[in-house]
Write a structure and sequence with these properties.
The chain is of the alpha/beta class. Helix content is about 25%, strand content about 20%. The structure holds flavin-adenine dinucleotide (FAD) and iron/sulfur cluster.
Length: about 475
Amino acid sequence: MIEADVCVVGAGAGGAVAAAELAEGGARVVVLEQGPAHDADSFTARPSEMLARLYRDGGQTVTIGTPPIGLPLGRGLGGTTLVNSGTCFRTPAHVLERWRREFGLELDSLDQAFERVERALSVSEVTPELAGLNAAIARRGAERLGWSHGYLRRNAKGCVGSGVCAFGCPTSAKQHTGITYIPRARAAGARILTGASVERVLVEGGRAAGVESSAGQVRAPTVILAAGTIHTPVLLKRSGLASDSGQLGRNLTIHPATAAFALMDEVVDMGHGVPQSFYIDEFADQGIMLEGVAGPPAYAAVALPLTGRRHAEVMASYRRLAQFGLMVSDRPRGRIVSVAGRPVIRYDLDPRDLERFRAGLARLQQLFEAAGAREVFLPVPKGVRPEQVRARNLKLMAFHPLGTARADARPSHGVVDSDLAVHGVEGLHLADGSVVPSALGVNPQLTIMALATRLALRVLAGPGG
Ligand SMILES: Cc1cc2nc3c(=O)[nH]c(=O)nc-3n(C[C@H](O)[C@H](O)[C@H](O)COP(=O)(O)OP(=O)(O)OC[C@H]3O[C@@H](n4cnc5c(N)ncnc54)[C@H](O)[C@@H]3O)c2cc1C
Ligand code: SF4
């Protein structure tokens, strides 16, 4: 049995940040992470090998519904930040205003938390040189069409543009939490246990008392769950907690995404340069965000929406292939169901979000045509125009699950309050994507980290602090 002031479950975006801030503030912290520690020296940049090592279930997590959607999750020290693209957006002001209005969330001091996180992760804007030719093509199209655009801000100090962020950054340029906040937590005295799967939260007399894990029991008066949007609700359910509002496991948004390829006249070599380096936010107010995506040949071969001979021909021209992505700010149409203690993800695309995909695909086609593409390959069946596509025909992926233990000041409407404290259980907090109460329209890691920073500083300040 281990004793601590704070037990943190999960070492991803939220957990690692909370652990470091608390340990540096003087708390005795124990972190329990189900996955392993990963060593960048062994990262091969080969997608098939790295998927199996860095992702949960080899990256094969999928939603059940129409259409089924791949929803990959990272696992280990760094969690999903280990495999993410490094894009850093603050929570848009209009989203924070909506949270205040609809969910009663007063999130003062979030700006300071963002600054703190951005400093810790060395966030800066990608240069056009590092962004590479794939981004230059999107930029050319956007400029010709007069669409609002820009280079993304990222947490990748000394990035060399090797193009394999999603398969483990081999140079450790990407400042994921496994190499930033976790070492800080350890240096400040935190105990970090890997291969430690938390089974349930212990509650005694209405307040948190610790957790039961595969590594034994941890006793702590403050417990912070950060197992991620998919696993935190299952852990709460297994512990018989937080079900009073009926919101646990519900309100899942995933920011579904798809991408188009284009065959250009020029050499693109999309595997060179930062894959996600450029964005087009012209249609952000319609819930449509266009963002860069790219990868090496082994990745493109799987993603290219062609088959047979044509697939082989186009892959033979890989050096002239360009790609760009599209994400839809979605309605909360999903939920997590716990089956034998494991999460099953239900999600059906809302008809209004289908309309957004139709519009977004037409925009991608327009973008590549304006950039001078010889041929555009949309992820739709042969002969189907974007405006005709059905939900079941869409080839979607999603990378940003949020909302399954949403924050709402009213105990009857949400699972945690503005301080991310679970309603009705003293000393139990959540610090991951599960608390984010609505789609953000942008990539979420900075939002999760800023919320975790704010939570840690409030826990250190104590009640009323
Ligand atoms: C390919 C990809 C690219 C992405 N790109 C971006 C991007 O560019 N920018 C951006 O902002 N976001 C991006 N994201 C999303 C972002 O990384 C996640 O939103 C964020 O990491 C989620 O943080 P979290 O703390 O909720 O969970 P995670 O970071 O997933 O951490 C949860 C951790 O908890 C552990 N855990 C789970 N259950 C247990 C248990 N029972 N006991 C102990 N430990 C447990 C897991 O193993 C995991 O390590 C991307 C995601 C993917 C998959
Ligand atoms: S582009 Fe390469 S060097 Fe840069 S963050 Fe991604 S994997 Fe690391």
